[in-house]
Amino acid sequence: MAKILTRTSADNFRVMPYNLRVFAVVGLWGNRRKQYRLYAVLLLALVVIVFPKPVRISDRHPFESIVRSVAELIFAALCYLTIIILAIKSEPFRQVIVKLEQTLALFRDKNDQCSQLIVEVNTSIHRFSLRYAKLHLLYVLLFNVAPPVYNYPHYFLQSKLPPANRTVEFMLPLMQDLYGLNVRHNIAHYTISWLSITPFCAFFTLILWYKGSLFMLIRYNTLLYQLVNLLLQQFADEGPGAKLRQKHHRLQRIVELHYRAIECTKLLDSILSLILLIQFVGCLLLLCLILFYVSRNHNLNVINLGVLFSSIFIEMMCFSYLGNQLTEENASISNFAFNCHWYEEPIVIRKYFLRIILQSHRKATITAGKFYNVNIVTFAQLIKTSYTYYMIMKEMF
């Protein structure tokens, strides 16, 4: 385990080395023969978590509890669909990582501003990944540890009262009926349920951390556009004194780097397009349902739904912010190109600049199902629409 988590100097020019080593252990990356582990756990999670969930209104399950159950089903569906789509898109996923690593490797043996930028960004991505993992560890503790910490002392306090005065109803990590077990009032049944679902909740947390690798890839792609801008800035600082052959070589390198960045964006969009469309729709419904449940229930059950709300909100915020940053960084390339006074250069140099400017005007974006771009504006619209649907639902029910 220490070897998996150790970060070396060679990792400064690699893409998510620490994450990929962890993913390889559980079958999410690398050797496909190990993927049977992943499929076995997904199947067991269906049996233990998804199938026992109540979806019909009854005396035992009033409308609010069904709202919570549906919200949890949507959350699980987002995790399942992400894994399924990434399994289908495993080849583009591998290609984008290979392309990014090949591009970063070009700067490995150089001690210049570009290599320093790569090290800085890669270090910040590594730190973010560790913080993101710690955040999800906190989710596991809140989601699975908080309920028994409350339930067991409460049960033993109630057991000292006369039977007629006992009002024990356990706080559940998940809204479900585990194959006929009385998980709300029987301490033995509750314990069986809690021990059954906790490993799978931890597994879903690992999937959420795996989804985080997707917006880390967006950040790596943005880094390529930053390198293009930095190289253009260095070209402008050289001034007119540089030799034509040197200029030709430097611009050829910049054009190739920009083309690789655009290729990576297209690959990322092919991977993320359907995932983000499902994510946006699921997030819209999930936020609406969670707001409705929290407004009707003022007990400790809202802690677990608060964890789901926080998780999906942070995910969408990261995708939107990084998608916005990617688009802006590519758009700024044309401004850096104009600052090079390319129109004063010989025709052979101008042709390179025209290619760079034309490529930067082709908007580099991450989309949700090709319907709309993923950025801060669409994220704000998502939150606004979720709140609108919540208000409609509140008035109707």
Automatic annotation (TrEMBL):
Spans through the membrane: 36-54, 66-88, 135-153, 187-210, 271-294, 300-322
Membrane topology annotation: Multi-pass membrane protein
Cellular-component GO terms for this entry: plasma membrane
Single GO MF annotation: olfactory receptor activity
Keyword tags: Cell membrane, Membrane, Olfaction, Receptor, Sensory transduction, Transducer, Transmembrane, Transmembrane helix
Main location: membrane
InterPro entries reported in the protein's UniProt record: 7tm6_olfct_rcpt
Pfam families reported for this sequence: 7tm_6
GO biological process terms on file: signal transduction
Key word RNA-binding present: no
Localization per record: Cell membrane
PANTHER family (alphabetical): ODORANT RECEPTOR, ODORANT RECEPTOR 19A-RELATED
Protein name: Uncharacterized protein
Gene source species: Anopheles maculatus
